[in-house]
Each structure stands twice: as C-alpha cells, then as structure tokens.
Design goal:
The protein is mostly beta strands. Helix content is about 15%, strand content about 55%. The chain has helices at about 1-35, 55-70, 75-80, 95-100, 120-125, and strands spanning about 45-50, 55, 70-75, 85, 85-95, 105-110, 115-120, 130, 150-155, 155-170, 175-190, 205-220, 230-250, 255-275, 280-290, 300-310, 315-340, 345-360, 360-365, 370-375, 380-395, 400-410, 425-439. Strands 12-13-14-17-18-21-22-23 form an eight-stranded antiparallel beta barrel. A four-stranded mixed sheet has the order 3-7-6-8. A three-stranded antiparallel sheet has the order 9-10-11, with no helix packed on it. It is rod-shaped, with a radius of gyration of 61 Å. The termini are far apart.
Length: about 450
C-alpha cells in the first residue's frame, strides 16, 4: 500500500511540474492577443496585419513604420518612382510583408539587428542572409507627381522648390530608438517671370505735329490811319486763324523743323462820311417903283433882296469784312528748359514766309462813295513774319504729346503796297494747340 501511495504521489508531482511548465506558454499566448500593435515592433519578426491603397512604394513603407514602428531604411528618391497596387494581408510576418511589397521591383532587403535595409537585388547578391525578391514579368514604373511645391518670387524671377523629406533612422543598442528627420530643400527649376514692360517714352527722333491756331490781332499804322474830312474810318480785326502741320527732329532738349500752314486774316472795314454841297444866294424882288422925267421918259426901279440857298448833304456809311489768306512756309527751333518723363516746357522761335493766296473786301477811296473793292495790285503778294513764345507738352501716350503754345507774331512789312494811302502792319498773339506724334 505504501508503494502504491508513493506512485500516486509521484504521478501527482509530475503532473504539477508539467502544469508549471505550460504556464509561461499560456501566458505568452494570452499576452499576444492583448499586446498593442506598436508593441509588436519589439518582438522578433512579429505577425502583423497590414493594408495600403495604391500608392508609391516609399509611402507604403512609411505607413508600415507609422503603424508598427518597424525600422526600414530605404532611398526615398528611388522608391518614390515605384508604384504598387492595393495590398492587404493578415497575420503575416514582417519579412513576408516586405517580400510581398518588394515583389517584382528588383529590390530586396536584409535584416541587420532590428532594422531592415532595402537595396537593389544586385547589391544584395552574394549575401546569404539577404532576401532577394523575384523579378516581375512586367514592371510598370509611375513617377509620382511632386508634392509640397513652394514658390518664392524674388524680383522678376520665380524660384520653385521641391521639399524632400529624408528620414534617417539611427539605431541605438540600448533599446532606445531615435528617429531624426531632416528636411532638405533643393531647387528643382526656376521660371523667369517677365513684368509687362512699362512703355518707353519716346525721347529722340522724328516727329510731326498737326495744329490749330486762333489769334488775337491788331493793326499798327506807322503813318497813321487817314480819316475822311467829314467822317471816320476804322479797321478792326474780327478773326485770325490758321491750320498747319510741323515736322522735324528732336534730340534731347532741342527741336528743329519746318512748318507749313494756311492762315486767314479777317477784319472789319467801317466807314462813315458826310458830303456837303456848296451854297448860293437867290435874289428876290420886293417892290418896283418908277420915275417920270420932264422929257417924258419913265424910269422903272426894282427893290430886291438876296436869299442864301445851302448845298445838298450826302451821308455815306459802309460796312464790310475784308479777307486776306496766306500760305505760310517757315522754320522753327525750340529748347526744353524743363524736361520730365511725361512733361516738358520749352521756348520757341521761328520765321515764316507768307504768300498771298486769296483776298476780298473793300478799301478806302478818295472820291465818293469813298470805298472800292480790293484789287490784286493793292495787296502785298509776299511778306515776312517772325514769332516767338512759350509752350508745354504733356505725354498722353507712348509717342503722342498734347502741345499748347502761346506765341507773339509780327509782320515785317505792310499788308498792302507802299503806294496805298496808309501803312498797315499786323501784330498778333497766337494761341496754338498741337498734337505731336513721334516715330
């Protein structure tokens, strides 16, 4: 009986020892179900579940690191050019997952400690510890579009930068994993940005200026204006205008050129005169008487008186508008004493040769009716004028200027011939507006 009890005790002791041996294994199985995913990275080649959508290979490996903190070293520049399809697995080892992801990419991996290094198969050839993935029958490489593009504009140049994230994993064998991240900015390309060029203001070169001129004129009579004996004569300018065109060359501040214009002088001819006829006396018989002489003769005598009869009176009044038209050909020069980018002020001087091209109206005459039509022989066919003044120019476009001017103009001779009863010279202040085009 003791022997049997001993055997039973021995068997019970053996069963207890086996239970104690199975306890750690049961504990590990229970711990594996409750262990979080990030803790699997500390185990040796753990079983993981992993899925990723269609993306580049570097993005898939970065996600693998983010979810399980598996240290995978690779070249982002190389793997970003490799595109993988959607991938999903459950309870596979890390090495199996890496093999699936690298399959057909001509890349393999090697485990060094707790780190996996991704390299090309040809670099891993001859290393028995490395895993070389089989090549794919057909490989499609898609270059992923650049991301995180930053544009920086400096002046007229736009610099476009591509931000590359280079992740370097440094392994420490004191169970501390330190991850350093470097951000390297590299110039991918630059784009020249051309500003719309500001129109260059035309400064030197040829120009042409059409213009319109209105004048305030008066006449100067060197010998005086003759007046009728019993009346008055007045010559009053009514309107003086000109249309013309100038052309020349501009160099810096100096302008020189030629001018051509049609100039019309209009003035009022006002005449009033009274003509008186000579008076005479008329005799009138007031009474008649007679005397008788002793000889029988009778003499008759008349008593008379004289009456003064005045002469007839004629009043002359005449109004007319005289016209003298000229073709002016001249030369001029101007100098800019104020010169800005879009404004300038200048002084101007010139001379012109005036040729008579038309006339009409009336002139004073010595005999009744004291006026007569203008005859060609009475008008001076050619005269000489000179002028000078100030002007400004405003830039209204790249090659166009608005040019107002004020000029004093005088004639060197009379408008009519020297044998005319009076000398008649004209003076005028011209208000001129032109539009200059430079080319």
């Amino acid at each position: 009986m003791r022997f049997c009890n001993l055997n039973i005790k021995t068997v019970k002791q053996a069963s207890g020892r086996e239970a104690l041996r199975l306890l750690p294994i049961l504990f590990l199985i229970f711990f594996s179900f409750t262990l979080p995913k990030n803790g699997l990275a500390q185990s040796f080649n753990p079983l993981i579940s992993f899925s990723v959508e269609s993306c580049s290979l570097d993005k898939a490996l970065e996600k693998l690191f983010a979810e399980y903190e598996l240290n995978v070293a690779f070249s982002k520049a190389e793997l970003s050019k490799i595109h993988i399809k959607r991938y999903s697995c459950s309870y596979k080892s890390v090495e199996e997952v890496l093999t699936d992801l690298l399959k057909g990419t001509d890349y393999g991996f090697k485990r060094i400690g707790k780190q996996y290094v991704i390299r090309k198969n040809q670099q891993l050839a001859g290393d028995p510890t490395a895993t070389i993935t089989p090549p794919a029958e057909q490989q499609t490489t898609v270059v992923a579009p650049k991301q995180e593009i930053v544009a920086n504009k400096r002046g007229d140049t736009i610099y476009v930068f591509d931000t590359l994230k280079i992740i370097r994993t440094v392994m420490r064998y004191d169970t501390v994993v330190e991850v350093k991240q470097e951000i390297k900015t590299d110039t991918v390309y630059e784009v020249r940005y051309e500003h719309p060029q500001k129109p260059q203001v035309k400064d030197n070169g040829w120009f042409i200026t059409p213009s319109l001129t209105l004048s305030s004129a008066w006449f100067k009579h060197a010998n005086g204006l003759p007046q009728p004996e019993n009346g008055s004569l007045a010559l009053t300018p009514s309107s003086v205008y000109a249309i013309g065109v100038d052309g020349g060359y501009k160099y810096k501040r100096l302008n020189v050129g030629l001018s051509l214009a049609y100039r019309s002088v209009r003035y009022r001819f006002l005449l009033e005169n009274t003509e008186y006829g000579e008076g005479y006396y008329v005799n009138d018989t007031l009474d008649t008487y007679y005397t008788v002489h002793p000889a029988g003769d009778t003499a008759y005598f008349n008593v008379v008186d004289s009456i003064y009869k005045p002469g007839s009176t004629t009043h002359y009044a005449y109004r007319d508008v005289n016209r003298l038209d000229y073709l002016n050909v001249g030369v001029f020069a101007s100098f800019d004493f104020v010169k800005l980018e879009r404004f300038r002020a200048f002084v101007k001087a010139g001379i012109s040769f005036d040729f008579l091209v038309g006339y009409g109206g009336s002139l004073y005459a010595q005999e009744p009716p004291y006026h007569a039509p203008i005859e060609k022989s009475q008008v001076e066919p050619f005269r000489f004028s000179y002028y000078g003044g100030l002007g400004v120019a405003f830039k209204v476009a790249n090659s166009v200027e608005l040019v107002p001017e004020v000029l004093y103009r005088a004639t060197s001779g009379s408008l009519y011939r020297a044998d005319f009863p009076f000398d008649m010279k004209m003076r005028a202040v011209d208000f001129r507006l032109g539009l200059t085009y430079s080319f």
